[in-house]
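input
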Amino acid sequence: MSFTTLPFLVLVALSVAAYYLLPQRVQWMALLAASMVFYCVGGGKTVLYVFYTAVIVYGSGLLLGRFNDLRRAAPKEEKKAITARYKPYRRAVVLVACLANFGLLYVLKYWNFTADLFQPLADQLHPGTQIPLSELVLPLGISFFMFQSVGYVIDVYRDKYAPEKNFAKLLLFVSFFPQMVQGPISRFNDLAPQLFARRSLDYTDLKYGIQLILWGYFKKMVIADRAAVLVNTVLDDPWSYSGSILAVGVLFYCIQLYGDFSGGIDITRGVARLFGIDLAENFRRPLFSTSLTDFWRRWHITLGAWMRDYLFYPLSLSKPFGKLGKFTRKHLKGKLGKILPTSLATFLVYFVIGIWHGANWRYVAFGFWNGGIITLSLLLAPYFLRWKQALRINDKSKGWHLFQLVRTNLLVFFGRYITRAPRFLTAVWMVKETFLHPNLPDLWNGTLMTLGLGGGDFLILFLGVATLLLAEWYQEKKGPIRPMLERQSPFLQWVAILVPLVVLFCFGVLRADYISSDFIYKQF
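output
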């Protein structure tokens, strides 16, 4: 049940109607029913994995909640003793919850990659031995609901809030249907109060929700799905094209990926807003990033925040990293000794983000690419500062800002070679071809017109991307667009809804050759 299909729109419409017609005390049940229908239709039997995760985190939360209650109820002079007594048990609960979820994620997503990696070793040790491969189907949005659920367990362990005692309500938090495809990754204390709130129909929520949904469909169906035609033509068979055409293919992949992912998130947030629910923002104009670190703060914000709170801080504040810090400060002079442990933790986080994308050597390389560049930038920061001072570069100048924008987007651009190529070695070959054998005349001798798109498609893509950039430029410089729209007349506000709807139907849904593609992140 893809977001771009009629059954999804019917489900949303029926869910909204049921939500506001039901008594307010049971409105959340309409959301749970819609979520179960969505996942059963879209994922079939894999809905059992959702129940598996919900059961694990529900039981873990209750156990941790009991430990927290014991500590809270104890006299002040006994709190430390009770904390120390139950600390091993609390950690064991969190460990079991993490292993149960991430262990299943490993089997489903990474086992076959590992088996292929160790098969040659198995053949050498015991000729004829075949490491069994997993034939299990990868569930829809598995890492999104698992990360969200594990975050809930860790937060209860940290006593940020009390555990949810109603299993059906926790199941809704795990499976809320708009965010199942590709996030965002929500926190229980942010999302749960909204899921279970009692609401009346609100015209503003409906209007904002529809606007967000249409903007998301515009990005997905008019921009991303059209760019995907050229991307698939070139990058599914890169050996047939010159370096300049490969670069065009990767550029269009950047357009496709951004339109696909951010458009999907807009649809998600728009559908949630129809129920009065405000989901976390997941993109903040990453095209205007001034460094690779800044890019990852703006791109897939909730994943970065999850990695920061549940991986980076536990790593950098752990005893092993504390010992490493003492060692480096003692044996390495200057700033390097102070920041090396933190830089290592940073590298590991971005490496994990890389392999989170998939079980393939190209994603391992993607993790090294981002982690390596960001870590080196941290380690070399003092030298960069000296060079800027020596060259008398003004950090506040428009020229320097433009340089940072171009530099960052070029780093992201070359990173996309890695993630879209069929294999890592193919990505290396593609980069080499781009530099050594560009054959620039292919850009104007008609070759572009043989890649699946006509002149009208290129024009629509150009206008679509220009509209997207203009909207994001306005948001970057002047703030959200919505308050500006609110100052306009009701007529102009409806025009803001109807114009994208007409464009969507004329250049998206109703175009003769339109084929909706799956969302790229749906099985991440």
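quick obs: The CA atoms of residues 140 and 459 lie 34 Å apart.
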